[in-house]
Write a structure and sequence with these properties.
Blueprint (H helix, E strand, L loop, with lengths): L42 H8 L7 H13 L16 H4 L9 E6 L5 H13 L5 E6 L4 H14 L12 H18 L5 H7 L4 H10 L3 E5 L7 H15 L3 E6 L14 H19 L3 E6 L2 H5 L13 H5 L2 E7 H4 L2 H6 L1 H5 L4 E9 L6 E8 L4 E2 L4 E2 L3 E2 L3 E2 L3
Parallel strand pairs: 1-5, 1-6, 2-3, 2-4, 4-5
Antiparallel strand pairs: 6-7, 7-8, 8-9, 8-10, 11-12
Helix pairs in contact: 4-5, 5-8, 7-8, 9-10
């Protein structure tokens, strides 16, 4: 399994030096499989980037769209499913190019779990790439999370074969110690491949390992400009088939701009991410942290997200996550307390803004936190939630 990385921790504020044909690879470990050839550039993608902010007549736009359809390029018309149902159905089939989606929620609710799982779902498609920038986790930690996720294989969700993070660490440490005693040098891939509990997880990760690009972003140097330039190069290398994931928005660095406060900084970042989506023609999915008032609230809403009102204005879709047990109507909890406790592992996803359809739609997904995975087979919420709101199936 090969690993790709962008060297984004440069000493200046310019973007990383990345070849235009493909991301810069990290040296592969001994015994790694050969790296596939770089994806050829798409002339259609390049031409769209070149004319992103140039005035064009409607006739020119129609002619360009016609050429795309003639070539069989229907990416402007076909949404990209996240793999979470019924979420995809409620947002028009999935993610669309040029759109900015914001995901908010309290700490520990599962925002990174959901986002990384969606990135994995997209990268599993042969012609699609996911670009995941994390300001909080290393690439290795994200890889380990994915191995745990793949051990239960969503949407199958076979918990009997599940491997928790501690289990994974114990396997690697014990097998490496045995190799040392035998006088051999056991590689990580060999350990995972030869262990019955991790072999299938490694095989599943390997299917999309070259299409999921991970970056440990730095709050100091991974600026909007760096993100834009890395994304542009990826678009050139993949024909524009890239979905960008930002984890999370408030940590994106800005330079040379200066912000008077966090609200102004968030405005600059969210406007920049929306412009990136429009200019490069890619979907952008960004996690957004909640403010102090939101963390105290019984139920988190869009207006509780940390920053400014620009979050509401710029987003095409805004989704808020809440623990179902915490937002159930108290009447429901009092009527059946045992059943209510069963909802502690369920998370309600509320579409609070939706340019593709109806807003204020609630759906729920079961979280399997030890395996860093959601069961993507969700359902509409049928119980009464606080705010005197009832969602009917």
């Amino acid at each position: 399994m090969s690993t790709r990385r962008f060297d984004d921790e440069a000493g200046d504020d310019s973007s990383p030096s990345v070849p235009s044909s493909s991301p810069r690879p990290r040296r592969a470990p001994t015994g790694a499989s050969p790296r596939p050839n770089a994806v050829p550039r798409s002339s259609g993608s390049a031409s769209r980037h070149a004319t992103a902010h140039m005035p064009r007549t409607l006739a020119q736009v129609l002619s360009e769209a016609n050429d795309m359809v003639v070539r069989g390029d229907l990416t402007e018309y076909v949404p990209l499913p996240t793999g979470f149902d019924p979420l995809d159905g409620l947002i028009g089939g999935g993610l669309r190019k040029t759109e900015l989606v914001l995901l908010g929620g309290a700490q520990g609710i599962g925002k990174t779990i959901a986002s990384l799982q969606m990135a994995r779902n997209i990268a599993m498609r042969n012609n699609q790439y996911a670009f995941y920038l994390s300001y909080e986790h290393t690439e290795t930690h994200l890889m380990n999370r994915l191995l745990c996720l793949e051990s239960i294989n969503p949407p199958e969700v076979d918990l009997k074969s599940g491997v928790r993070l501690k289990d994974l660490y114990d396997i690697v440490i014990s097998e490496r110690a045995k190799s040392t005693l035998r006088g051999s040098s056991g590689s990580l891939q060999a350990i995972l491949r030869n262990n019955a509990k991790t072999a299938m997880a490694l095989a599943r990760v390997s299917r999309y390992a070259d299409r999921l690009i991970l970056v440990k972003a730095s709050p100091a140097v991974t600026t909007l400009r760096a993100i834009r330039e890395m994304t542009a190069r990826l678009c050139d290398a993949t024909g524009g088939n890239v979905t960008v994931f930002i984890d999370y928005l408030q940590k994106v660095a800005i330079h040379p701009e200066r912000a008077a406060d966090e609200g102004e900084k968030v405005t600059i970042v969210v406007e920049g991410l929306k412009d990136l989506a429009l200019a490069l023609g890619v979907p952008v999915w960004s996690i957004v942290a909640a403010d102090r008032e939101g963390l105290k609230a019984q139920r988190l809403h869009l207006f509780h997200l940390r920053g400014s009102s620009a979050l509401d204005y710029e987003a095409d879709i805004a989704i808020i996550m809440n623990n179902k047990y915490h937002i159930l109507s108290k009447d429901h909890v009092a009527f059946n307390p045992y059943q209510a406790r069963q909802y502690r592992d369920w998370v309600v996803f509320t579409i609070e803004k939706n340019r593709a359809g109806r807003a204020m739609q609630d759906m729920e997904f079961q979280l399997h936190a030890p395996y860093f995975a959601f069961d993507p087979r969700g359902r509409r919420v049928q119980q009464q939630l606080i705010d005197d709101k009832i969602i009917e199936s």
